[in-house]
Each structure stands twice: as structure tokens, then as C-alpha cells.
Design goal:
Layout lengths: L2 H7 L4 H5 L17 E4 L3 E2 L11 H14 L5 E5 L7 E5 L1 H9 L4 E6 L4 H13 L6 H15 L3 H8 L3 H9 L5 H8 L5 H8 L4 H10 L4 H12 L19 H14 L2 E6 L5 E6 L3 H15 L1
Helix pairs in contact: 3-4, 5-6, 6-8, 7-8, 9-11, 10-11, 10-12
């Protein structure tokens, strides 16, 4: 690839680096951009992958598909300079992992002679154009394009097909405290939740409350607005007691009880196995209805 061709390819996404190969199936073809079958064991993970989390459910679905249909879209690799005869994975890590789990011996791949710069952009853009990165992985990918390739937010947006404001808002998430970032990476909060947390006096504490109470973004915005209003600011933001674990099962039970009783239910477990069950009623009629239910069950 000449310098002029490399310059044209940068920022145009994976298709610019694959040529027409991304549209081809695993069938053999001729030419430098054609997919070829390469032993799965000869391919090593790339150095430039932005993805850090692989959702087990989504991977299981992909493995099942690969077992039935095979790998229909080729991955992108380059020759591994450190291991002659082997290849470094540039784009398509989920497909490569799925091929291994499906016990495939070969996988369709396009082999390209890419510089580190081109390999970095291909790996980042291919993943950023997909919808299954979490918001922190996405933001880190944008940051790498800025830091390692000198891209402006506008240039990053051009590379991944998004507008500048989307890029800037994503990058803001990287200023969140580490506990809040981990909640987003684990899927307990969305990127939109993270942006709400940025406006809180204590972003880490507010992110934790959003996750524990399973707030929607609108509910989180309303809570934050109420905290800022002097007339309603009596409700202080409190972290859960240290050492108390409120896992997904606890939140699920709270949700079931809330739906069954028609009022908010809160479980407060303690370290010793005991705890509290708190019922929140908003009107006396709601409280009377609860008493009537209890009397009926007791009778």
C-alpha cells in the first residue's frame, strides 16, 4: 500500500481496508483482497483490540450460529512478524473466539499488510461501528483514535460515522470516577446514566444509587433535579451501608414485591443475615389497602 493509498484508507472504516472482501462469503476467491481459509490455531489476538468484555449470552448465540452456518464474514488479519507462519488478529475477535468454541479448524480471513497505525484504526473502527461495545469501551476507543492517531473529535466522527457531539459526550464519560465507570462496563448502567452522574455533586455515589434502585434515566434526572431544589433538598444522597451486598437477586425480589403490592418495597440486608423490609406508601388510602390485604390473609 502506497502512502497515498494509506492516507485515503484512514478514517473510511473497515471496508476501506478490506476492499470488497467483507461482502464475500467463505468461498475461495482470487486476488490479494480475497478471503482465504486459515487455521484457527495460527491466529493470535491483536494488540489493538478495544473490546474488554464479551457478553456470555451474546457469545453463546454467535457460537450456535457458527456451528450451524459457519463464519460467513471473514475476519481481518496481518502476518505476525514475531511468529513466522502465524497471523495477528486485527478485526473480528468475536467471530474468531466463536470459531474456536464451535471447534472449527479453519476460518475465512483477509490477510493485509498493515502498518501499526493502519492496524490500530482498523481494529478500533470495526468495533466502534458495531453496537455491542459498552459506553466506556466506546469512549476509550475514541480516545485512542485521538491520542494515538491525532484525530480531532470531528475526524473521529467521520471515521465511525457519528456526529461530533456524540463523540464529545462519549469522551466525557472517561472523567467519571472508577466505581461509576465499572458500573457502566458491567452493564448495570448505560452511558446515558453516566452522563447524568457527571452532573451530580458526588458522581460515584449517585451512580451507585442509580444502579441499586434500578433507576431509568428519567428517574435519575428527576432525582438529581430534586436534590438541587432547596425546597426538596432534605433528601440526602446516601451510599448503601459498607459491606452490605445488594445483588441482582435482591433487586429482582424488590421489583416483584413492588409490583405485587403496588408500592415501593426496599430490602436492606445486613451482614449477619438479618435485614429490614421497608414499604413506602404515598397516600393513606394506599396504606389502608395494604392493611386490608394483611387482614384478609390473616383471616
Amino acid at each position: 500500500m502506497s502512502p497515498a493509498d494509506a492516507k485515503k484508507g484512514l478514517g473510511r472504516g473497515l471496508s476501506a481496508l478490506l476492499g470488497d472482501a467483507a461482502a464475500q462469503s467463505a468461498a475461495p476467491a482470487e486476488g490479494p483482497r480475497a478471503a482465504r481459509l486459515i487455521p484457527v490455531a495460527k491466529i493470535h489476538p491483536g494488540r489493538f483490540q478495544p473490546r474488554r468484555n464479551f457478553a456470555p449470552e451474546a457469545m453463546a448465540e454467535l457460537v450456535a450460529s457458527v456451528k450451524t452456518q459457519g463464519v460467513l464474514q471473514p475476519i481481518l488479519v496481518r502476518r505476525d512478524a514475531k511468529h513466522p507462519g502465524d497471523y495477528e488478529l486485527i478485526a473480528g475477535e468475536r467471530r474468531w473466539r466463536a470459531a474456536q468454541e464451535a471447534a472449527l479448524h479453519e476460518i475465512p480471513a483477509v490477510v493485509k499488510d498493515l502498518s501499526d497505525r493502519e492496524a490500530l484504526e482498523a481494529a478500533l473502527v470495526e468495533n466502534l461501528q458495531r453496537a455491542d461495545l459498552n459506553a466506556i469501551e466506546e469512549a476509550l476507543g475514541y480516545k485512542r483514535l485521538q491520542d494515538e492517531m491525532g484525530f480531532t473529535p470531528d475526524r473521529v466522527g467521520q471515521a465511525v460515522g457519528k456526529n461530533r457531539s456524540t463523540i464529545v459526550n462519549a469522551l466525557r464519560l472517561l472523567s467519571l470516577p472508577e466505581p461509576a465507570r465499572k458500573l457502566i462496563e458491567s452493564g448495570k448502567l448505560s452511558g446515558a446514566h453516566g452522563r447524568v452522574a457527571l452532573a451530580a455533586p458526588d458522581p460515584a455515589a449517585f451512580a451507585e444509587i442509580m444502579a441499586l434502585e434500578d433507576m431509568s434515566v428519567r428517574q435519575a434526572e428527576a432525582r438529581l433535579k430534586a436534590m438541587a431544589d432547596p425546597a426538596t433538598a432534605k433528601t440526602k444522597l446516601k451510599r448503601p451501608a459498607k459491606g452490605v451486598v445488594r445483588d441482582a437477586d435482591t433487586r429482582a425480589i424488590e421489583k416483584r414485591l413492588t409490583e405485587a403490592l403496588g408500592m415501593k418495597v426496599e430490602l436492606k440486608p445486613r451482614k449477619n443475615g438479618a435485614g429490614e423490609l421497608v414499604l413506602h406508601y404515598s397516600t393513606l388510602d394506599q396504606f389502608d389497602d395494604l392493611l386490608a390485604r394483611l387482614d384478609k390473609d390473616a383471616g
